[in-house]
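Second attempt. The first submission of ATP synthase protein I had a stray character pasted in from the spreadsheet, which I only caught after the job came back as garbage. Lesson logged: always re-copy from the clean sequence file. Corrected sequence (96 aa) follows.
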Amino acid sequence: MARGQGESGGDDPRPEGGRGSEERRPWRAFALVSGIGVELAAAVLAGVYLGRWLDRLWGTSPWMLLVGVLLGLAAGILGVVHLVQTVMGGTSRDGR
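This time the job returned cleanly.
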């Protein structure tokens, strides 16, 4: 058996969830916060650009821009909720 494999624990002296996972905890938090920022920014920017394009196309300035920002913000929030659920282990929609 390879080092650290098997149910008996092998030669790996670290207990599961030991120091290795403690050292990665700040990086996981940093990755989550970065992902939240990127998710929100990308969704809102996509809404802004889509809204501006539709405003130019239809001559409805600034209404489609506002709709695009609101839709982008809603999509970003949904994306953040999904991201946080994925990182934190997730729960089903009914809370079980």
